[in-house]
């Protein structure tokens, strides 16, 4: 991996490791407004208690994320993705990330089924939005609006925006996945504030963060395959990527 790249005709050089996540490494660069992100081949479940090296996963997630971030940009949805550096690395806008996971559910699955005994894949009307506190130590507990406000994690106006922005992302992603015969079941987003305090979509948009189900076969094409030990997770990821790439041609 080279440690420098061009962005907007300027050389950006990778610096010190800022943060080691479960599936990504985030580095500072010599430009304080830009971060260098490396997608790892690591898969984790149960908030990091289970992990495994899965060759090729980093580049698949990176490629899928790039296509989806660029799709959102074309739809006028601002996000942190700036440019690709290599098959596994990208430059992102440096943001102050909120400690909140924004989950959107179009169909019942995962914890929505285990919590409420809902029928798996039941269509959810209205679409369900939930917030969770990003904390491995506490197993990402659910948070309601007043808990978020009382802890000072976001303001009321930011909460209103988070809900509206996540709904816009849901619409844009549901549409693109529908075009490739995939149902977007649910997904998790993260947001950060830029230097002016504006909320911008961050993190990644990959099958690590979303449930994707083939409309014809009902097969899972996402990290559930890893969570459930149901085979090679990269088969589904490769399928998602090739359908997205074909759409772009
Ligand atoms: P659930 O709450 O059913 O486990 O997850 C709902 C959706 O959000 C799924 O698409 C899941 O992948 C995503 N999600 C929820 N929490 C996390 C998390 O901590 N990490 C990742 N990568 N995805 C999450």
Automatic annotation (TrEMBL):
InterPro entries: SAICAR_synt/ADE2_N, SAICAR_synt_PurC, SAICAR_synthetase. One of its GO terms (biological process) is cobalamin biosynthetic process. It is an enzyme of class 6 (ligase). Coiled coil: none annotated. Transmembrane segments: none annotated. It holds the Pfam family SAICAR_synt. The keyword DNA repair does not apply. GO terms for molecular function: ATP binding; phosphoribosylaminoimidazolesuccinocarboxamide synthase activity. Belongs to the SAICAR synthetase family. HAMAP family: SAICAR_synth. This is Phosphoribosylaminoimidazole-succinocarboxamide synthase. The lineage of its organism: Bacteria, Bacillati, Bacillota, Bacilli, Lactobacillales.
């Amino acid at each position: 991996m080279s440690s420098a790249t061009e962005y907007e005709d300027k050389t950006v050089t990778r610096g010190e490791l800022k943060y080691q996540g479960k599936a990504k490494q985030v580095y500072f660069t010599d430009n304080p407004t830009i971060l260098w992100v490396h997608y790892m081949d690591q898969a984790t479940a149960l908030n990091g208690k289970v992990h495994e090296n899965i060759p090729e996963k980093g580049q698949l997630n990176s490629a899928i994320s790039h296509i989806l971030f660029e799709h959102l940009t074309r739809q006028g949805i601002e996000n942190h993705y700036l440019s690709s550096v290599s098959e596994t690395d990208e430059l992102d806008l440096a943001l102050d990330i909120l400690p909140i996971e924004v989950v959107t559910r179009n169909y019942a699955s995962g914890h929505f089924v285990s919590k409420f005994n809902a029928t798996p894949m039941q269509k959810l009307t209205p679409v369900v939005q939930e917030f969770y506190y990003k904390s491995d130590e506490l197993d990402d507990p659910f948070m309601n609006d007043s808990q978020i406000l009382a802890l000072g994690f976001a303001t009321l106006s930011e909460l209103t925006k988070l809900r509206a922005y996540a709904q816009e992302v849901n619409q844009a992603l549901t549409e693109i996945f529908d075009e490739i015969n995939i149902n977007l079941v649910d997904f998790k987003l993260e947001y950060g504030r830029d230097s002016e305090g504006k909320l911008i979509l961050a993190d990644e948009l990959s099958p690590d963060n979303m449930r994707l189900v083939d409309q014809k076969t009902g097969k899972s094409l996402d990290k559930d395959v890893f969570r459930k030990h149901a085979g090679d997770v990269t088969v589904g990821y490769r399928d998602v990527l090739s359908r997205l790439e074909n759409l772009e041609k």
